[in-house]
Write a structure and sequence with these properties.
Belongs to the oxygen-dependent FAD-linked oxidoreductase family. Its cofactor is FAD. It holds the Pfam family FAD_binding_4. InterPro entries: BBE, FAD-bd_PCMH, FAD-bd_PCMH-like_sf, FAD-bd_PCMH_sub1, FAD-bd_PCMH_sub2, FAD-linked_Oxidoreductase, Oxid_FAD_bind_N, Oxy_OxRdtase_FAD_BS. The structure is a single chain. 28% of the residues lie in helices and 24% in strands. By secondary structure, the protein is α+β, with helices and mostly antiparallel strands. It has three domains: 72 residues, Uridine Diphospho-n-acetylenolpyruvylglucosamine Reductase, domain 2, CATH 3.30.43; 112 residues, Uridine Diphospho-n-acetylenolpyruvylglucosamine Reductase, domain 3 (2-Layer Sandwich); 213 residues, 3-Layer(aba) Sandwich (Vanillyl-alcohol Oxidase, Chain A, domain 3), CATH 3.40.462. The strands form four sheets. The protein has an eight-stranded antiparallel beta sheet. Strands 5-6-10-8-9 form a five-stranded antiparallel beta sheet. Strand 8 and strand 9 form a beta hairpin. It is globular. The structure holds flavin-adenine dinucleotide. Flavin-adenine dinucleotide binds next to strand 3, helix 4 and strand 10.
């Protein structure tokens, strides 16, 4: 049962703190976020979003938007704000002939993948299936398919957007092109996207998976080798580096479960022989604890990391971009990943191939379309360890900062909104983004994000 809290014009339910289901509805993936909205507006379409935004403006309420709820941000909001919940906007419609898909602004990747893979198609998106397409796309969107087909935004054809003033508009290259430019990387700064339309590509249904794992004692040499190997891969082979415990997966020898070390993770979308050659080359070069490869359904690849990223994870993330893992960088990485807790991790993926083929100015994506994006994730289920995890993430970031090409990092992996280096993230694009913000959200109603101040 839900309350009948009066938001004029809303057809979806509105939850108050006293309503059943409130605690579940306010919870986010990141267990560090424990905020208490005064109202949760569960929107069923653009009309509901417009009504909720109008209500917030007239009542002077702060507004936060929840797409998939997977944001790593940990901003502290004063109790009583309005949470605009898009979870019900999750319809996915595939056009297999045109190879396009339209999905609601609150769709989870699992639902998008299931619908598109039914036709042997896919759009590049993230690597954990309960992530929302909303936040992921608006920040850029990197996934296993990105070396082949680009970032998620590089496959975005159009959006339906509710602007802060309540107007419902479309954004594409043809309609509101400046808004469309800003939405592709500028986060949720300009409006609430109620529908995304993407270009699709033939993928799978079976792809190749591989992992090479070197123990922590030899991390520095392995990390340097991994970075060199990734640059040699054909576009059909994709993947990244995970400085994390070896998973207790069937392909990992039991004696190495939870071993500390550094992994090179590979996904092959082309000729299986190309993928096998990449795994073999990495194993020969690094003499790993173990190396494994196997065919895998694409949908299983997309869900493989879900178990390591459960709802409620306490995660403090910082990020930056590096050009390469030089010997100096490798030494810093080895030292700091050697100090991580068993549950913390550092991830790095290369921005190259199809990602680099898109001109930097074509979208508002924050950061270079080259080099390595790094995410430093302090994670521990025990709240008593929150400070230690935060300090580790901050310490690792500070040690890497002298080598960074952009210290702000990939905007989707900026956890500390209070200290977000927005100017760094969007270096070179900030003036244009501020003008778009001034045009579409001059009052900065949508500010619970890596916030761009209106010009
Ligand atoms: C475990 C984990 C794995 C991840 N893996 C990847 C990965 O492989 N690749 C990658 O690129 N990123 C990855 N990310 C980062 C992820 O892209 C971001 O956390 C993203 O913001 C999540 O989107 P969401 O809609 O689920 O989050 P939310 O917390 O709901 O939203 C995040 C931000 O986006 C805004 N927003 C969301 N939806 C909309 C909308 N429809 N309209 C307007 N604004 C909206 C929100 O206001 C908020 O500011 C991962 C994050 C986690 C926690």
């Amino acid at each position: 049962m839900t309350s009948t809290a009066p938001i004029t014009g809303m057809t979806g339910p509105v939850l108050l703190p006293t309503d059943p289901g409130y605690d579940e509805a306010r919870s986010m993936w990141n267990g560090l976020i424990d905020h208490r909205p005064g109202l949760i507006a569960r929107c069923t379409g653009p009309h509901d979003v417009a009504a909720a935004l109008a209500f917030a403006r007239s009542a002077g309420l702060e507004v936060a938007v929840r797409g998939g709820g997977h944001g790593v941000w940990t901003a502290r909001l004063e109790p009583g704000f309005l949470l605009l919940d898009l979870a019900a906007l999750n319809t996915v419609e595939v056009d297999p002939v045109e190879r396009t898909v339209r999905c609601g602004g609150g769709t989870l990747l699992a639902d998008l993948d299931a619908a598109t893979q039914a036709h042997g198609l896919a759009v590049p998106a993230g690597t954990v299936s309960n992530t929302g397409i909303g936040g992921l796309t608006l920040g850029g969107g990197w996934g296993w398919l990105s070396r082949l087909y680009g970032l998620t935004i590089d496959n975005l054809l159009s959006c339906e957007v509710v602007l802060p003033d309540g107007r419902v508009v479309r954004a594409s290259d043809a309609e509101n092109p400046e808004l469309f430019w800003g939405l592709r990387g500028g986060g949720g700064n300009f409006g609430v996207v109620t529908e995304f339309e993407f270009r699709l590509h033939p993928v799978g249904p079976v792809i190749q998976f591989g992992m090479v794992f070197v123990e922590q004692a030899r991390a520095a040499a392995a990390l340097q080798a991994y970075d060199e190997l990734m640059r040699e891969w054909p576009a059909s082979v994709s993947g990244g580096i995970a400085c994390a415990a070896a998973p207790p997966a069937p392909f990992v020898p039991a004696q190495h479960h939870f071993a500390a070390g550094v992994a090179l993770v590979l996904a092959g979308f082309g000729d299986p022989a190309e993928h096998a050659a990449a795994v073999k080359a990495a194993a020969e070069r690094t003499a790993p604890l173990f190396a494994a490869e196997a065919p895998l359904p694409y949908v299983a690849l997309q869900q493989m990391l879900d178990a390591a990223a459960l709802h409620g994870t306490r995660d403090y993330t910082k990020g930056l971009y590096l050009d390469a893992i030089t010997p100096d960088v490798a030494a810093v990485l080895a030292e700091w990943t050697g100090r991580r807790s068993p549950t913390a991790q550092l991830l790095a993926f290369r921005l190259d191939q199809a990602i680099s083929a898109v001109p930097d100015a074509a979208t508002a994506f924050g950061g270079p379309r080259t080099g390595l994006a790094v995410a430093i994730e302090g994670i521990d289920p025990d709240p008593a360890q929150d400070a230690a995890e935060r300090d580790w993430a901050r310490g690792t970031w500070a040690a890497l900062r002298p080598y960074a090409t952009n210290a702000g990092g990939y905007v989707n992996l900026v956890g500390d909104l209070e200290n977000a280096l927005v100017d760094d993230v969007y270096a070179g694009k900030l003036d244009r983004l501020r003008r778009v913000k001034a045009q579409y959200d001059p009052e900065n109603l949508l500010h619970v994000n890596a916030n761009i101040a209106p010009a």
